[in-house]
């Protein structure tokens, strides 16, 4: 009965609320900001290059981007795209692209907001904290809602998703290399523990290494596949666009199913608007909140437009996909496609890629949960270490437990988190529009933008945090 209730609520939230609310708000944010994700697109590279670094060891915008990409890029890019194509056909890829481009503006808004309302994690710390729980509490004065958000984040990402990732990785290695799940689980646990007991700075350093390696490696494999099938690319893109509006009769549910699958997998993959990425965006040391909004918008582009497209092209160019065929989907479909392209090595590569994607996602998930613990008790070392031990234990347990029902419950808690976050964003869009105007004005003046924090006191921001950042930047200029 509990499973049926959970499935009903999941279908209600994801299939009847978020499937409309996310695109609607994304379109609203896009229009209200004058297409900010496209206007600022090429500024993303300059922002990463010019990001200010502090001698005290603050986390850079690039490190925050890598940690964010670590969370967005995961099983959804390998298995999720395959599921979308299996259930929605090639046309689902087109709608995945659309939801990604729209989601870039939503991510910009939520991450700029997280930066604006961030706070320092202790007097002598070089780390910042922020996210939906913080801007709900500060901007709206609703701490009880911040508590609910923090609990949902902790359950979803710290416990359920990480334990499930451990199971997926360990069983994949058992299938591909005949390695017992307990051995893979032990390796994951050691790496995971070494990262999280070093705090957010060590987590970002791990992500700074792992994410570029896994993303570039996967991209290179996709480039090889595309190069081997270059003459087929124009026809493939034509097929994707055509099937988006006129799907094959083998796809049950017609165009509605195509749009639904593309949108759902796009949302699951890039997490724009779901309230998770802002927790990471807030930690970056930047001169103006818009800078991190730009960078996090780029994170969505990397995830959906680049890496999801890699998987789609690998599958659709292989010939292993058969419209309407059941039984072969998810990771297996992607593995079969790569084996078809480059031989047995392709299957092994998918397993290793899944390991790296999964490990980086676990570090990201842990940070979201840690941020939630910090919301309840700032700087309590005993509490943090106890929480870390629990998270490590769940990694070990998850490596040999099929946690499908727990993962389904986590989908529900994430859906509730997304609904709350989107409603809050709809209420708090004005501060972000003011941030954009201020940023544009300073660019026109020929200045490198810094937050003029006195202009935003009406929004109840932490003035001392921003005064310290701006004063430090001005001292360096002098």
From TrEMBL:
Keyword entries, A-Z: Cell membrane, Membrane, Symport, Transmembrane, Transmembrane helix, Transport
Matches recorded under NCBIfam families: agcS
Chief site of localization: membrane
InterPro entries linked to this entry: Na/Ala_symport (IPR001463)
Source organism: Arcobacter roscoffensis
Gene3D superfamilies: Amino acid/polyamine transporter I
Protein name: Alanine:cation symporter family protein
Pfam families in UniProt: Na_Ala_symp
Location in or out of the cell: Cell membrane
Transmembrane parts of this sequence: 12-36, 144-167, 179-197, 209-230, 236-260, 300-322, 342-369, 381-400, 406-429
The keyword Disulfide bond appears for this protein: no
Membrane topology listed for this record: Multi-pass membrane protein
Annotated family: Belongs to the alanine or glycine:cation symporter (AGCS) (TC 2.A.25) family.
């Amino acid at each position: 009965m509990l499973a049926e209730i959970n499935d009903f609520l999941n279908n209600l939230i994801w299939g009847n609320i978020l499937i409309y609310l996310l695109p609607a708000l994304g379109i609203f944010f896009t229009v209200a900001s004058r297409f900010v994700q496209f206007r600022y697109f090429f500024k993303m590279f300059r922002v990463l290059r010019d990001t200010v670094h502090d001698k005290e060891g603050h986390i850079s915008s690039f490190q925050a981007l890598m940690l964010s990409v670590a969370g967005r890029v995961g099983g959804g890019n390998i298995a999720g795209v395959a599921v979308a194509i299996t259930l929605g056909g090639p046309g689902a890829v087109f709608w995945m692209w659309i939801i990604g481009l729209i989601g870039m503006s939503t991510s910009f808004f939520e991450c700029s907001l997280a930066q604006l309302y961030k706070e320092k994690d202790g007097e002598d710390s070089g780390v910042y904290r922020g996210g939906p729980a913080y801007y709900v509490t500060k901007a709206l004065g609703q701490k009880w809602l911040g508590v609910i958000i923090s609990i949902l984040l902790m359950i979803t990402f710290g416990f359920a998703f990480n334990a499930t990732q451990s199971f997926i990785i360990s069983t994949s290695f058992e299938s591909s290399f005949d390695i017992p799940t307990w051995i893979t689980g032990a390796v994951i646990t050691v790496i995971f523990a070494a990262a999280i007991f070093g705090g957010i700075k060590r987590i970002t350093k791990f992500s700074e290494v792992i994410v570029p390696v896994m993303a570039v490696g996967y991209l290179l494999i996709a480039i090889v596949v595309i190069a081997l099938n270059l003459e087929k690319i124009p026809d493939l893109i034509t097929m994707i666009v055509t099937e988006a509006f006129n799907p094959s009769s083998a796809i049950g549910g017609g165009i509605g199913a195509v749009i639904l699958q593309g949108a759902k997998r796009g949302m699951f993959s890039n997490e724009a608007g779901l309230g998770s990425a802002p927790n990471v965006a807030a930690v970056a040391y930047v001169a103006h909140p818009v800078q991190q909004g730009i960078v996090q918008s780029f994170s969505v582009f990397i995830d959906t437009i680049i890496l999801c497209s890699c998987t789609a092209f690998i599958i659709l160019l292989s010939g292993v996909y058969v419209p309407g065929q059941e039984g072969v989907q998810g990771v297996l479909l992607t593995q079969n496609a790569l084996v078809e392209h480059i031989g047995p090595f392709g299957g092994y590569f998918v397993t290793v890629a899944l390991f790296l994607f999964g490990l980086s996602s676990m570090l990201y998930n842990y940070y979201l949960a840690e941020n939630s613990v910090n919301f309840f008790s700032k700087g309590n070392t005993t509490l943090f270490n106890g929480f870390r031990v629990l998270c490590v234990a769940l990694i070990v347990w998850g490596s040999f437990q099929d946690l499908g029902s727990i993962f389904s419950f986590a989908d529900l808690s994430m859906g509730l988190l997304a609904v709350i976050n989107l409603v809050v964003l709809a209420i708090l869009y004005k501060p972000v529009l003011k941030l954009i105007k201020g940023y544009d004005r300073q660019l026109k003046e020929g200045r490198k933008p810094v937050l003029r924090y006195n202009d935003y006191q009406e929004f109840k921001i932490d003035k001392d945090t921003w005064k310290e950042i701006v004063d430090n930047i001005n001292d360096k200029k002098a």
